[in-house]
Design goal:
The chain has one domain: Vaccinia Virus protein VP39 (Rossmann fold), CATH 3.40.50.150. Helices cover 39% and strands 19% of the residues. The protein has a seven-stranded mixed sheet with strand order 3-2-1-4-5-7-6, sandwiched between helices. Helix 2 runs parallel beside helix 9. With 250 residues, the chain is of the alpha/beta class.
């Protein structure tokens, strides 16, 4: 009898294009900094953090560089070969509850991971094992379920969320929602265009991921940089968007 798959891992092509220079990655990082500011979480505190599903560790390393946080990185595959400032790297399945990690972390980052998990509620329950009492879980997930496309299949997504469905998962695990809102309002039209293009044209997996995520093309990069500036600094519309950011408390 085949064992049921727990989660879909992200294709390595995504990790190659989602580097520090990627406009969307920079955009997401700014949204997280905004979340800290709105929630009055002090970056100068010596918080012990965990980045679950850390991949190549771009986020963790950058987070450590702008704060006094120590960020341990967890993934089921060894991807990060960079030097660490303070945190450690663990090749570890969080479902395996090692006692040395119990109630260890002040903050757990779960960035674009939950959509890969078959049983998302069970996975959040596993995350709670690692989190201190009154600790924070910070999540980012793709939104707008109706825009689930070939791109989502290619990168290993099982679902996209809205605030209602994500709230249900948090409520089920008795986590208090401190803040939850959409971001990337001006990216929504691009998602429609991407979905249409990928529906009309058959492509291999790597091409789909590159078309959907890569921002190295000069024209694409400039357009996204303009959209980021307008969306983040001018419009500041957080009632609908391509992603959802959430801060929840144990």
């Amino acid at each position: 009898m085949l064992k049921k798959k727990k989660y879909n891992t992200t294709d390595n092509t995504w990790h190659k294009v989602a580097d520090d220079k990627n406009v969307w990655i920079k955009w997401r990082f700014n949204i997280i900094k905004e979340l800290f500011l709105k929630s009055k979480i002090d970056l100068n505190k010596n918080f012990v953090c965990a980045d679950i599903g850390a991949g190549k560790g771009n986020f963790s390393n950058r987070m450590e560089s702008i704060s006094n946080f120590s960020v341990d990185q967890f993934d089921i595959e060894k991807r990060n070969k960079k030097k660490f400032l303070r945190g450690k790297y663990y090749v570890h399945d969080i479902k395996i509850k090692n006692k040395k990690f119990k109630n260890k972390y002040d903050i757990i980052f779960l960035l674009d991971v939950l959509e890969h998990i078959q049983n998302d509620s069970s996975f959040i329950r596993d995350c709670k094992f690692y989190l201190k009492k009154n600790g924070f879980l910070i999540l980012n997930v793709p939104s707008i379920p109706s825009l689930f496309s070939k791109y989502d299949h290619a990168v290993g997504h099982i679902r996209r969320y809205n605030t209602k469905t994500l709230s249900k998962v948090m409520d089920k695990n008795k986590l208090k929602i401190v803040r939850m809102y959409y971001w990337g309002f001006l990216l929504v039209p691009l998602l429609f265009i991407r979905t249409t293009i990928l529906t009309l044209f058959e492509q291999d997996k790597k091409s789909i991921i590159k078309r959907g995520m890569e921002t190295s093309n000069i024209i694409v990069k400039k357009i996204l940089e303009i959209l980021f500036f307008l969306d983040f600094y001018i419009i500041k519309f957080r009632f609908f968007g391509s992603s959802i950011i959430a801060l929840v408390k144990k």
